[in-house]
Structure formats: structure tokens, C-alpha cells
Amino acid sequence: MSLEVIILAAGQGTRMRSEKPKVLHPLAGKPMLVHTIEQAQRLQPGQTHIVVGHQAHQVEAVVASLGVKCVLQAEQLGTGHAVAQAMPAVDSDAIVLVLYGDVPLVPAALMQKLTEQAGQGKLALLTVNLNDASGYGRIVRQGPDNSGPIQAIIEHKDATPEQLQIKEINTGILAVKASYLNAWLPRIESNNAQGEIYLTDVVAMAVDDGIAIGYLQPDFPQQTQGVNDRMQLAALERWHQQQQAHQLLSDGVQLADPSRFDLRGELKAGTDIYIDINVIIEGQVHLGNGVHVGPNCHIKDAHIGAGTQILANSVIDQAQISANCSIGPFARLRPGTILHENAKVGNFVETKKTTLGSGSKANHFTYLGDTEVGEHVNIGAGTITCNFDGVNKFKTHIADGAFIGSNSSIVAPVSIGAGATIAAGSTITKDVANDNLAIARGKQRNIAPWVKPVKL
Ligand code: UD1
Ligand code: CA
Question: Are 289 and 394 found together in one domain?
């Protein structure tokens, strides 16, 4: 039996107080809705339908590349109405899994188990027990102590005082055969406290039809926690970050403080890595064996070779770093930076579209843009490659073993030969041959005797 996923994402999310649709607010750097879609896609559904409404265009633009279909719910008449909008496009032989764009952390494994129950012909619900069940739909079970089979879901606003005592709540997530939904959804009425078409009414209909009601519960309530405001989003972010940090610790990555580490993407880590406090890892990052990351570093979409030291307050974006390099403190490696083995980039050095050959060093106060640096080159403090004339960018080549004196401006396009020396303070505009010395600065004049000015 095939699976189709319906993700509700039409609501306004008023309490976020945002111009942005709620489901697009990021958790761990990724829109909440995208988390839900990615977990669902691990089940390899035939189709995924996103029910959009408020700010539909913004939501559609974000999910356009993810292989999902959007269906418009022009007016938000309730969760039952929302699911009904997607049903015409759903194969009537399929199992339907209903998810929510603002419930981002449901694990794929839990979704899978729910769909398995639906495959056995049950209406499978995801429920959770909460100390404070206020606001949620209550799971009403048979028997005086409410512990028997599930009979119905009663929304908070429709519940009797006794029903309000129930701690087991509806997460909203369910799985069931499409053919059942097709029979039930048109029969849902809106004669309730909110005048809405409640998806939850299908539970009582299933009971009437003699369909078994299955249920599952998450390992952690956060896995089914929805986000209605920024406090809830921040709390869920922290929980998720803590889970990721604990996973890294058990995988053998030493975090100085798991509560001061943020992973917004995917980290592939070797052995014996140490990560100091307040580090943010973003996008796809690979850290080789023995990498040390100092405090307050931001590393995004980068590959860091084994044994490399990244010192405090460094920012690395789209860079390829080989083994045993040293970066920072206070270095900024921008997109297109490539460091070969044993290269060193020190404090207040910025690189962009620049390769440093093995053993080369730019230790202090330097800008290298569009620059190819060979092996064992020393770039002195204050060196600038002038790669931009205001309109076009040009390349600088610095060959193996060259020595660039401090405070040099190297005006591209230009090539410095192997073993060449550039005298400190030079402005280089012409190519320099191998092993030559280039001096391009005002000559020093000493004036003597020199009579100092006196106060008038
Ligand atoms: C719903 C459930 C409730 C459950 C709770 C869990 C119903 C009737 N109630 O209540 O049992 O405890 O979720 O959070 O289902 N949406 C649409 N279109 C609509 C209405 C809603 O897309 O017409 C989306 C919303 O954007 C939201 C989700 O569905 O993401 C839930 O809707 P909401 O109105 O917040 O339902 P609750 O009242 O919280
Ligand atoms: Ca809600």
C-alpha cells in the first residue's frame, strides 16, 4: 500500500508577531516546515501535499525544490477542512499520514510506526501525556478511569470539566487509510465551540464504524511539540540543540559545554575533536581527526583537515582546509579559500578565493583576494592584494618561496616569481622575476641638523 503525506501549513501564526509565515521560521537554521518534509521523505511517500493558505506564495517558494505539491486552502475553516483540500489528489488506495508544518521534530521512525498501524486498518493517533494539557484536544477513553480504548477527541473549548482533567492529549498527527478519510471528512460538521471543521471528529466516526483506534506516544514530548510563539520556538531549539550535542558527545566529539554549542546543519566528525564554547557549525561541515576549535568560532560549509587548529573568534565560510593548518585567532576565511597542509592564517587576516600552498603563512593583518600563493611563502603583516579596480577583479600569483615584506600593496593582475623578495612598504604593479628583490617605495632622506619647532 502506498503512502501519501499531508502537511498542514495554512494557519496564520499570529502569536509569532512576524511578517514571515510561522512554518518558515527556522529551527537549527532550517525552516520548521522543511524539517517536517525531510523526516517524512525518509518514509519515501508516493506524494507529499502541503496545505498552504496564509502567505501561500512565500511557503510555496521555499518548498518548490523539495518535490512536494502545494494545495491552497483559501479560508482556514479547520483541520478537517484543511485535510479535505488535499484528498482529491490523494490515491484512494493509499495510507495517509497527517503532519503539521509547525511541529518540526517528529522523528521519521515514529511516523513509520504510525503508518504501519494504519496499514493494519487502524486509525492511528499520536498522543502524549502532559502535566499541563491546557488548550489541547483531550483523548477520551472508555471506562471510569479513562484507560480503555479511545472513544473520541474532545477539543479543550468543547470539553466538560471532567474531560479537562485528562492529561493525555492529541498531537494532531495521525495515519489512516485514504478511503476511510474520504468517507468521514465530508460528514464532519462545524457545530462546536469554535465553529470549525475538526479533523479530530473522525475518531468518533471510526469508533461508530467499528474501526480500531491505534495510538503511539513519542519518547520525548518535544518530538510532538508544536510551535505557536517565539518562546516555544526558542525552547524547542534549545532542546534540539541539546539532543544534537549529546549525540556528538556519545559519538566521541568533546564539547567544552554541550549547552553552548549550536549545530545548524550536519557535522561529520573524526575522532578526538575538541570544540570549545560558543561555536556555531552551519551547513555541511567536516572536521578531521584531532581538530581543535577554539571559543566563539563560526564554521560554515567547510572541510577541515586532521590536526588543524582553529583558534578563538575565527569565521570560516565555504573553505577547504588541509591537515595541520593553523587559523586565527580572529581570522576570516571567506568562500573559495583553500589552505594546503601546514598553512597558517593568523589574526586579522581575511582571505577570499585564495589558495595558500603548503607551509605558507599570512600571520597578521592581511587581505588576500583572488590570490594563488605557492608553497613556503611568507606574507608579511599588513600585506594587501589589491584585486579590485572598482569594476573588475584580477588575480595575483605568488610563487613558491617568495617573501612579501610587511605593508606591501600588490596591485593585480601581477605575478611574483619563486623565491622573490618584496621589500616592506612596496606598491607592486609590475611582475617580479624569480629570486629578484623588488623595492617600490619612497626613498628615505635623513635631514640633519634638524631644528625642532618651538612654541610661539
Ligand atoms: C489541534 C487539534 C487538537 C490538538 C492540537 C495540537 C483539531 C480540531 N484540534 O488543535 O486536538 O491537541 O492541534 O496542537 O484538529 N491548520 C490549517 N488549516 C486550518 C486550520 C489549521 O492548515 O483550517 C493548521 C494550522 O496552521 C496549524 C495546525 O493546522 O499548524 C493546527 O491548527 P490549530 O488551529 O492550531 O489547531 P489547534 O486548535 O491547536
Ligand atoms: Ca495549535
Answer: yes
